[in-house]
Amino acid sequence: MNLRAESGSIVLSVAGLRKRYGTDEVVAGIDFEVHAGECFGLLGPNGAGKTTTLKLALGLIDPDAGRIRLLDRPVPEEAREARQKVGVVPQFDNLDPDFTASENLQVYGRYFGLKKSEIEARIPQLLEFAGLAGRGSGKIQTLSGGMKRRLTLARALVNDPEVVFMDEPTTGLDPQARHLIWERLKRLKQDGKTLLLTTHFMEEAERLCSRLLIMDHGRIIALGSPRELISKHIEPHVVEVHGPGFEHWAEGARKLAGRVEIAGETAFCYATDEEPLVASLKAHPLLIYLHRPANLEDVFLKLTGRDLRD
Amino acid sequence: MNPRFFAVPMLSMRFVHIWRRNLLVWRKLAIPSMLGNLADPMIFLFGLGYGLGALMPAVQGVSYIAFLAGGMVASSTMYAATFEAMYSAFSRMHQQKTWEGILNAPILLEDVVLGELVWATTKATLSGACILAVVMALGLASPKFALALLAVIVLTGLAFAALGLAFNALAPNYDFFMYYFTLVITPTSLISGVFFPVDQLPAVLQSVASVLPLYHAVALARPFMLGELPPNILLHLAVPLIYAAVGFYVALVLTRRRLLK
Q1: With the C-alpha atoms ordered B236, B240, B241, B243, is the resulting torsion angle positive or negative?
Q2: Residue B105 in contact with residue A114, Cβ under 8 Å?
Q3: What's the rounded Cα separation, in Å, for the pair B246 and B243?
Q4: Residues ≥6 apart with Cβ < 8 Å to A89
Q5: Does residue A110 sit at the B interface (CB-CB below 8 Å)?
Q6: Which helix (H) or strand (E) holds A263?
Q7: Does B28 touch chain A (CB under 8 A)?
Q8: Percentage of residues in chain A with pLDDT exceeding 90?
Q9: CA of B244, closest CA in chain A: separation in Å?
């Protein structure tokens, strides 16, 4: 039997965590806990401190302040021991280009002190998981971006980890490849693995994460399940309107919607009841509108603003 | 700098994993890599040894090529260790992010740097030993102290691999290594007694040479290859050993500063 953390127990806890680079406080005092078996998301615009938080939790960098416990071990003091049961999917693939797919798994397994026979027994399963069954002897250069990403994910499982850290697991993938990764992550969840992922795809977070936090400028600005966050921060209906004279219409719509936001050429109307808005649009046939339920992206944009982060 | 960067390295046998990784890659390219490593010193040895040697009377009582052989064994070991610890290690650290991948596993940076040190030394030892074998096969060196020579080669490899890894940690790009070769390695090979006896140099350069690891490696390799016991063996062993130990620690501190931030 696997020695898995009991359901509901805490896999990672972070308290008062701070990290400063020069005058820039990248992580500015954050607290959160990740429970066994959940998929926990770290969301935030570029530069919000997500990757730094992951690196701190893995003990790869030292915090300026705060406490971290990963799999019941203090980090960074016993981070190496804790990582024995952790899998990591880095933001940029660092598969070994000189090796085949199988060799990548084999060599990586050795870093965990696993026996050759133990790793070799696991390789067919891992390749199957990566959708690369029968391609174990393929060179890394011959794999597509999606295949490399899946192999990186399989590599992170070579030690049968309790928790898998993923830094933007689907960035740069096409929709087919992204959906396949999502299916694999759901399978891992079913297998009882704890997942911790960073992403700026709201759709990804909404689909996969049982709980998530939104970070900006190194601080946590919201924490909860996707549903909770949507119902807490935003009206349930969104009507997006654009077309000639939309600004004039939007002025009148302000008393019909809870909140109207003009961004560029579009008015975003957030409302508890969308009927009056849709009715008033009937009189403006030139305006194009989209009525949809509120989603996590609306929450994200409301909390972090619409300004570009470069 | 973060005081933890100066922490005493927690060395363990985990470095073998990193060494084996590099060995597995090398095995795929072993033949061209060996040829590339050997061709250069061989051309120097025979080109200079026979070409220049024909113009020269005996140097320190032996033919010029027999004199040069000791220097070439030591200097080619230095070059092989330096190349591996710089260009190849830099590829793994910076270009391919191999080290970053390894550090996500239960491996410490000291394991990685030690693995690279031992690996670069292994490659350098292969190079030095091959040249030694050729020279001995041609009867240009005595096989009497073959094992002692092997130890000298390993020690030379360790010293220059450690220095190379320290500079590797400072390198912003591959071009940076040109400075190291031009300003450190080339002058070192010219004043350490590889091509001509050090007493031909002005006194100032002789004192500079006497603190360089290559000078001590040559001071051991040459007499051993001529079948003689070198004087001051302990001193000549101690200097490269100190370079290796201090170089490794400096390399580790600088690499921690570079990667663990």
Answers
A1: positive
A2: no
A3: 5
A4: A149, A152, A153, A156, A164, A165, A166, A167, A169
A5: yes
A6: strand A259-263
A7: yes
A8: 77
A9: 25
